[in-house]
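Hello Y.,

Per our agreement to keep a running log of every chain we model this quarter, I'm adding this entry. I've kept the format consistent with earlier entries: sequence first, then predicted structure.
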Amino acid sequence: FYSLESSAARWQNQNSDGTRIHLAPEISGRLSWGPVGLIPRASLQHIYYTSVPGGKDSQRTIRSISTDAELKAYRTYHQTLLHTVEPTLRLEQTDIQTWGDDPPLLDLIEAVSEQRQLTLILLNRWLSTGSSPTPLLDVSPNPRELAYLRITQGYRLSDLDTLSSSESGRVAPLRLEVSLYPRPSLSLDLDGRYSHDDDRLDSLDTDFHWQWGHTQFELGQRYTRDPAIRFLTGGAGVILRNIRGDIKMW
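Predicted structure for the entry above:
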């Protein structure tokens, strides 16, 4: 599989302004042996920063290589509930090379850091598979996801002196992602990170979504310990055919 993501952005603030051009091709593949799968992936991001007259131009190249080794297993309960378990072992390395001055932090493109990491991912999914005499499942003739649980734990293989201030040790924070779908129109999402080094919660995001006809509403909160972030989010939207409009507040 191959893909190409590109963008052009113009920014202006008190310290600097200029133009950014971002090109990111990626190629990946999948090899399968029954329930075992191997997914190699390679990407190359090249970013141009052109400053206004009087400033300096700069470039940045980000090279990423990763391989996923995954296993899939499943079990059916009462012929109506399907539970799948997908453990994945990921090995990834990212290298960054910059020409000229370091670019300003505009968004997640600049937030990428050099790393070499081994990650274990455990994914659990529960899906309805058909009609059931149990009304609590609220199943339909088509399979529908009822719950999603993903646990991610990484181990940094990079030299400790190359880690950023937020990466104080080799053991990365434990990440827990949970999604619940009690009804097709309702969903609850939680995304939290726990720091082993500090023995405390690093971040916790929650979102509640409700869709009523062509209208949808959402309510959530954001919490991050460092940097200190804490606020509530709310929004509403309307879907008309293939056009969607949203308003969000925080």
